[in-house]
Predict the structure of NADP-dependent oxidoreductase domain-containing protein.
Amino acid sequence: MANLSNVKLNDGLQVPVLGYGTGTALYQKEAKDSVKMAYSEAHMHHIDCAEMYANEESVGQAIKELGVKRDDVFLTTKCGSADPRKSLEKSLKLLGVDQVDLYLIHSPELVKETGLGKSWQIMEELQKEGKTKSIGVSNYRVSDLEEVLKVAKVVPSVNQIEVHPYVYSKAQSLLDFCHSKGIHIESYGPLSTLIRAPGGPVDPVVKNIAQELGATEGQVLLKWAHQITHGGIVLTTSSKKERLEEQIKAFTEIKDLSDEQVQAIAEAGKQKLHRVFMQHMDS
């Protein structure tokens, strides 16, 4: 199987375009076996964690048992408290590493007490100290990012947000804003129209495109999330090797959607709003 390509962030860091998420299905559950399978059998070397998922220790055990070099795993985790420094130090200990590749503030709601500007300055300090290679945010709206950018010496490299056709109408202005500032989008929940809201207006459009491309509907939705975010990073998860291999092939074997296909899915998605996570994003 061909290797996944990388996405180059605004600080030069290279990130595998497809990442293995340890939230959702693995939320607050043992993740060791799933991470080992994803890495060694499906060859997914980008692992996305979070303090909030309460399974970082088992991810760390997986990395240790795999016996791979630290540089051979791209490791992301996210701050789950009002104190990014305290959270990262805890995460590093649980993961059994000295440094993560990418550290994100999981939500602006978590750092309201600290302040969006102040919490970002702490993130910059953590990067300077070498505890993380790159720093970014998650679930930040345009107004949140504007507040961060008022004080930022380092522009966030990433904004990790829910991306699928049924949130596109709400996300469009945020995607454009991030693109204009050089902030890459990491999409989570890209298969939500298929898994969590089946039977909607997007389904027949995606099915037709899948037939045209010789792809699965899941592969079409992964490609759509990547392309609608200007070549962003996409997160997915599965406990099945075959499903992960199918998802990887979306980026190694399936050709890009045409502009018309991308827009057809976007237009169908505008007929319905179905947000699964982080309801503040609609405010």
Observations:
- The first strand starts at residue 6 and ends at 8.
- The radius of gyration is 18 Å.
- The CA atoms of residues 76 and 102 lie 5 Å apart.
